[in-house]
Amino acid sequence: MFQFDQTFRDEFRANWRVLLIAVTALFFGFSAPAYALPFIYPEVIKDFGWTREQATLLATAKYLTGVISCLVFGRFLDIAGAWRALMVSILFGGVALFGFAFVGGLTSYYAVGVLLGIAGPGAMVSCFVLVGRTFRASQGTATGMVLLGTAIGGVVMPVVTAQLIEAFGWRTGMAALSAGIWLVAIPALIYGMLRVPITEQAASASDASESVGVREYFGKMMRGSSFWLMSTAFFLVTIVDQALTQHQVLMLLDAGLSKDDGAWAVSAIGVVAIFGRLLAGNILDRSSNRGLAGLYFLLTTCAILSFALANPIVLVSYIVVRAMGHSSVMVDGPVISRHTYGTQHLGLLTGLLTAMANLGSATGPWVMGRMYDVAGSYQYALILFMILPAVSAVCIWFVNPRAWKAQRADARRRPDEPAEGSPAVG
Fold first, then answer.
1. Which of 88, 116, 277, 425 would bridge 147 by S-S if both were Cys, CB 3.0 to 4.6 A apart?
2. CB atoms within 10 A of CB 140
3. Beta strands of 226-377 (E only): which ranges?
4. How far is Cα 154 from Cα 271, in angstroms, rounded to an integer?
């Protein structure tokens, strides 16, 4: 049953403006480049004669840069605040999209990927920390709501991108996508910085966390098993998720769909993901890592269904399963890390684990492109992608979400009973 009790409602009533601004920022600043990239791969392959590996290496450049970006933004937002960090990342996104107008070869093409690697992961980490500091009992559901910005973008951007490329060419079309950043996202963030401070409860939690030094905190955390289990799970599952995302249009074209039909199929995934983000977040609120382990198997199912996308029934099934699988990967890191370690040094913690996911995101598209160029099909890549989510599910199953367990125990405890100590790092 979907959980939305009085505690949930109180948190949402107090922080709805935070969610609205974050959704707006992710819709224009994150979704535009994230969902547009697969539509330019066929164009650059045709214009420059590149291989699929060369074309999709743009995503690898983006996510490799994102590994460093996550760490830098994680520490930056602990010091400067989530609003400022989010503003900086969104500005980089606008510059990156406009930069497509000047691409003339591989060097400039990959340079845009580097700018995207600063923008996208930085925006995501900033939004995750913003939610983590303003929501407690409903963090998973709130994270799912913030990610509606990416889900709605997944519906709108594929169709808009395809139409812009058809009308103006891929360079001008991609540059035009930056208009929403300059005209909507940036003004919304300025309003947030000036008029929507984080709540007193979140500020106190953040200040309290600084009582433990960064080096001491992370040294103790890395000596425990949960950190490495989460890192392995996030790395492997994002290999599969981003490989399927970046090669999605190429796979649909190989299955016999037209460019327009492929765009509508990708948009349909976005429609289902609107509900998928909320459902996945709510599942994590109720069952934490055990629920996530079950959700990871949806990506194994995606790989299996990918063998028969030309079949309309299989294609519809793939759209639904793919949307839910991708939704689980979007909400997993910020929710499970907070369930395990609480809010201490939340920015750097979220950045560190998101960096591990970005390593997977950088690896997946390249691996899939390379295997296609060698074998002439996606068959062997898809077999590999049937296995990796299962390994991730096993890893995440054995994570111990101490903070989540303590929080649920506190919620069940009678008011006159003493509170237990905070969960230890490990």
1. 277
2. 31
3. none
4. 7
Per-residue exposure over 211-235, b if at least 16 CB sit within 10 Å of its own CB, e if not: eeeeeebbeebeebebbebbbbbbb
Task: Give the tens place of pLDDT for each residue, 115-141.
Answer: 999 999 899 999 988 888 888 777 888
**Measured over all CA atoms, what is the biggest interatomic distance in the chain, rounded to whole angstroms?**
72
Q: Is 81 left (phi over 0), alpha (psi -120 to 50) or beta?
A: left
The SS3 of residue 416 is coil
Which tokens is 185 given? 């996202």
Q: Please state the pTM of the whole predicted model.
A: 0.78
Determine the Cα–Cα distance for residues 248 and 262; give it in Å rounded to an integer.
9
Determine the Cα–Cα distance for residues 27 and 275; give it in Å rounded to an integer: 16
Q: What does the block give as tokens for 139?
A: 């963090």
- State the DSSP string of 132-151: HHH-STTHHHHHHHHTHHHH
Buried b (16+ CB within 10 A) or exposed e, 351-363: bbbbbbbbbbbbb
Chain centre to alpha carbon of residue 67: 13
CA-closest candidate to residue 37, choices 165, 144, 183: 165
C-alpha dist (Å) from residue 83 to 182, 193, 320: 16, 6, 34
Pairwise pLDDT comparison (210 vs 15), residue with the higher score: 15
What does the pLDDT look like over 144-193, one tens digit per residue? 889 889 889 888 998 899 999 999 999 999 999 999 999 999 999 999 99
Three-class secondary structure of residue 353 per DSSP: helix
Weakest-pLDDT range from 26-40, 75-89, 188-202, 321-335: 188-202
